[in-house]
Design a protein that fits this description.
Largest sheet: 6 strands, mixed
Number of strands: 15
Radius of gyration: 29 Å
Helix content: 40-55%
Strand content: 15-25%
Strand order of the largest sheet: 6-5-8-13-10-11
Number of domains: 2
Number of helices: 12
Order of helices and strands: HHHHHHEEHHHEHEEHEHEEEEEEEEE
Structural class: alpha+beta
Shape: elongated
Distance between the termini: 100 Å
Oligomer: single chain
């Protein structure tokens, strides 16, 4: 088959898939996947990826019209989307390791399974004698929609927990098969929750794009190099995304792991650039000019002022060994990481755990996009302060507490005059 004919056939097939998805809420993927696999011999994993793209497009077009016409129950959609999102991520994670033959069988089974309940409901456009269950009452899920034949249709919602579980299964199927799982969503809302067929189809369209988007952004990689690494968003403007908190740290342990310690903590440093001055209450506006000029209003540990002081200070006991995985999201400033009152016993410079660690280090330099690992034994109780040793930054929010319970051990340090050595 020529590429031109392939494009024409797929274009016409996509139009049909879009019409089917919009009308009955089943998702265009229910046609796209078999056309690509059976008609063109495309690997099912590739067909699933292409189908997810089509599902997002179909859902976006149809959902806007249904919301405009008040045919979508947004409360029901938002509740059930919680279940389908977790399910979609679960399905996408395991899909890469599943045998394609199983995916073919599952796809066929889903098609057959979704047909019988719908045939059973032929002629029942609006369910009768449905009573709200406790969940529907508390969440106010019952509502109404306009209908040309019946006027304003009021409806109730029942068996919400059963619908929630079925939606998780629908999400898993979406992640595995890339069909948007509209067939199972409509089935759950029609059969389990007893929603009118028009409303369940419209609500399914509204939900389907979100579920498919959860599938498409799942990715897989093999960790090959042991170490502590910072990851971040790389979409322009990269600095804007990083200062908005789109970064984190990942640890790849060597075989056998790192030496055992009593407690491990994760700490990251970043900056925020606002129009309003430091300490302003309420919502703040991001200042792009300050960002590109590297003039932050806030320096932060773990994304907020007071994150490691007022909200979530670190806790340990005297005599324990503590390990801190420390990274800098930035986007602009290098950190001179230091714990006031302590010396680091071991420092894995730049997060390298395959190189011998440095020993007995006071302060360690960590660049933006870099990381380090430090560990130290705490010999006495007290309050220790995590800082960037560019200490003016503490005045702009950059401080954390390590609160250690236990004796203060006067032999190591005490207030008052020096103790006399009895031997002298």
């Amino acid at each position: 088959m020529s590429i031109e004919l392939f494009v024409v056939v797929m274009f016409l097939s996509a139009i049909g898939a879009g019409m089917l998805g919009s009308l009955v809420g089943l998702g265009g993927g229910i046609l796209i996947v078999p056309i690509l696999t059976i008609g063109f011999g495309v690997d099912i994993h590739l067909a699933i990826g292409a189908s997810i793209i089509s599902v997002i497009a179909t859902s976006s077009g149809a959902a806007a019209a249904f919301v405009r016409d008040h045919m979508t129950n947004i409360r029901v959609a938002m509740l059930l989307e919680l279940a389908t999102t977790f399910g979609a991520v679960s399905g996408a994670i395991v899909a890469a390791w599943i045998n394609p033959k199983f995916l073919y069988l599952l796809f066929g089974g889903i098609l057959i399974f979704s047909v019988f309940p719908m045939i059973k409901k032929l002629g029942e456009e609006i369910p009768r004698n449905v009573v709200n269950d406790e969940w529907a009452d508390n969440l106010r899920l019952n509502s109404y929609y306009p209908d040309r034949k019946h006027g304003v249709v009021h409806y109730n919602v029942t068996r919400v927990p059963l619908g929630f579980v079925m939606m998780y299964v629908a999400g898993v199927v979406s992640g595995l098969l890339g069909i948007g799982s509209g067939a199972l969503k409509v089935l759950a809302m029609d059969t389990a929750m007893r929603l009118p067929i028009k409303l369940s189809s419209a609500t399914s369209n509204f939900m389907r794009g979100g579920t498919a988007a959860d599938d498409i952004f799942a990715s897989f990689f093999k960790a090959l190099k042991p170490g502590a690494y910072v990851y971040h968003c790389a979409t322009p403007s990269v600095a804007h995304h990083i200062t908005s908190g789109m970064y984190g740290m990942i640890l790849v342990e060597p075989e056998g792991g790192l030496p055992q310690v009593d407690r491990e903590f994760y700490v990251m440093q970043g900056e925020i650039y606002t129009v309003e001055p430091f300490g302003t209450k309420g919502e703040r506006e991001m200042d792009y000019d300050n960002l590109i000029s590297e003039r932050p209003e806030y320096f932060l540990f773990n994304s907020s002022v007071g994150a490691l002081t007022n909200s979530h200070p670190l806790y340990a006991n005297a005599g324990e060994t503590v390990r801190i995985f420390f990274g800098v999201g930035g986007p602009n400033f290098t950190s001179s990481f230091h714990v006031i009152g302590e010396i680091f016993d071991h420092v894995y410079t730049f997060g390298s755990i395959t190189s011998p660690p440095l020993m007995n280090v006071q302060t360690v330099t960590v660049p933006p996009g870099g990381a380090t690992i430090v560990d130290f034994k705490i010999d006495r109780g007290g309050h220790y302060v995590l800082v960037d040793h560019a200490l003016s930054r503490a005045e702009r929010g950059l401080a954390g507490y390590l609160i250690v319970d236990g004796p203060e051990n006067d032999d190591i340090m005490h207030s008052g005059p020096a103790k006399q050595d009895p031997a002298q």
